[in-house]
Amino acid sequence: MVLSPAASGPPAGDGTGEHTPLLSVDRLVVRYGAAVALDDVSLEVGRGEMVALIGANGAGKTTLLNTLSGIITASSGAISCRGRLAHVPEGRELFPDLCVDDNLRLGAWKAASRDPADVYELFPKLRDLARRRAGYLSGGEQQMVAIGRALMAKPDLLAIDELSQGLAPNVVQEIGRYLVRLNADAGLSVLLVEQNARLALELCSRAYVLETGRIAAEGPSSHLKEQPAVQRAYLGGHVAT
């Protein structure tokens, strides 16, 4: 799979020589009873950035997104988001008995407009499926609806949990290109939480590696791809430059 990441660099500056990230997570701790799910996690996403968070199943990736969205309450630490965040949950979580159009409009329940025209322009396939029940769609079509529903909230940051889950590689490639287009054309920031490290590092210019609730590595994706530990754990061995 070859996907060109958007031309996004480090977090944008504020004109004073210091950057002000769109999303800042500082020393976040989340516990489930006595078990620590996230331990001293810090990360940033700048305006116009595509940032990946990779890690194995059970590393705490979904816990982090649920905490950012307010579904889970942190034990300590700080979260600052200088814009609107929209969350695409793991498993899509659509309303299966509602049609595509209704699922999309529900994403705009706080927005001034509920017209899904922009989503249909991004995902033309959904226009033809507008009156079909979401439960009868393919996995790729459902993922498009889930992303489109989040976009209806007019977010500054799109946080996506397991984009590739249960999807064929060609479908993942297609949806990945839509995300790159959104980032490049609209300046939408993306936090891609993904178990498929190869996909995430191809799409995003910068990444964090989460292992057992802690950030184990971070940096430019091109640099992380060359790290032996990342290659062994997430990329199936050596990756040619």
Q: What key attributes describe this structure?
A:
9 helices; single chain; Rossmann fold; 241 residues; alpha/beta; six-stranded mixed sheet; three-stranded antiparallel sheet; disordered N terminus; globular; 32% helix
Notes on the protein architecture:
The chain has 241 residues and is an alpha/beta fold. The protein has a domain at 20-83 and 158-168 and 193-234: P-loop containing nucleotide triphosphate hydrolases (Rossmann fold), CATH 3.40.50. 32% of the residues lie in helices and 25% in strands. It is built from 9 helices and 9 strands. It has helices at residues 61-68, 100-106, 117-122, 124-128, 139-151, 169-186, 197-203, 221-225, 228-234, and strands at 23-32, 35-45, 50-54, 76-81, 85-88, 157-161, 189-194, 206-211, 214-220. A 6-stranded mixed beta sheet has the order 5-6-7-3-8-9, sandwiched between helices. It has a 3-stranded antiparallel beta sheet with strand order 2-1-4, with helices on one face. The radius of gyration is 18 Å and the shape is globular. The two termini are 15 Å apart.
